[in-house]
Design a protein that fits this description.
Blueprint: H1 3-15, H2 17-31, H3 37-88
């Protein structure tokens, strides 16, 4: 496995953290005697910004992975074409 594929897989797995993060906030709100709406709103807005960055990085890793595999595919095609040309003459 190359590092681009590994980065992509790690990014996808890291994005699943949003579920746990939301559960922690929900538990905190449910257990609190009083709910500080501003505090909860700030936590949610911060999460939104953080996950926006995580999703953008993951998509960038996805694009890099696709580019890498397309380049590899093209190199293999060129190598096969070269071998075939050499064997025809």
């Amino acid at each position: 496995m190359n590092h681009k594929q590994f980065d992509l897989e790690q990014g996808i797995l890291n994005c699943w953290n949003i579920c746990e993060d939301m559960k922690i906030i929900a538990e905190n709100v449910l257990e609190a005697k009083t709910v500080d709406r501003d505090k909860v709103a700030n936590m949610l807005l911060g999460m939104a910004e953080l996950y926006q960055l995580k999703f953008e990085k993951t998509f960038s890793d996805f694009e890099a992975t696709l580019k890498y595999f397309h380049e590899q595919k093209e190199q293999i095609r060129n190598a096969i074409k070269t071998v075939e040309e050499r064997h025809l003459f």
